Amino acid sequence: MSDNPLYKRTINRHVIPSRHLPEGERAIRVYLPPGYQAWISYPVVYCQDGEDFFNFGRIATHAQRLILEEGWEPFVIVGVEVDKSKRTSEYAPDGNRNAAYMKFFAEEMISWVESNYPVRDEPEQRLLAGDSLGGAVSLSLALAYPALFNRIVSLSGAFYDTYIEQIEAEGSLDRLKLWMVVGLQETAYETDRGVYDFVALNREAVEILKARGAKLVYEEKDGEHKWGFWQQQLPEALAVFLGPTPSSFAD
């Protein structure tokens, strides 16, 4: 079966040049689904912490099974890699590399991917996904670039005060659809900015988002702030946006 192109899974690695990032480039990896054809257009998932999504979240393995065994429409996955030592400075709104990262992601990386792969360019066909700070910066991107993004998967989003301020500064957010989850054992998680109650952070973000009209699927489950928990949530999260049955969002 593995030699049959209909079952083939491909993961390509690229280095994208950047005028915005200090290093002048950023690595990404791209999952191409079984049966991939260059003349067919595909929905696309853009992941923060791309290396972790592939290695620990096993997102390509999930996608392969969902497409082959459950009959999902094939989709492409793009994982944007990050230097963990610079992660907070890129993902946090008050980080000294945040503006450069946001511009790279939205103004350079998206156009590069769309020029090199047949992914769809409508906001409804682009899904942003991230864990912790990655979930929060995905929301930041959707707020800053509404013409590009309106669908988000947030795994235990680190919605610190700076993110809450961003949401509160917005008017109507009825264009946004979010799938959010947080682990009930995440009430005292130590970060590089102190110890936080992620359940409380997510509850506050959810209430503000709802008040501005965003449509949400929000769940609190037994789980810790780690990939062992998040990996299990990915099929459910992807199903809301990419699965064969219609999405159901609370108003």
From TrEMBL:
Keywords: Hydrolase
Entry annotated with the keyword Transferase: no
InterPro entries reported in the protein's UniProt record: AB_hydrolase_fold (IPR029058), Esterase-like (IPR000801), Mycobacterial_A85_antigen (IPR050583)
One protein family per Pfam: Esterase
Protein name per UniProt: Alpha/beta hydrolase
Superkingdom of this protein's organism: Bacteria
One annotated GO molecular function: hydrolase activity
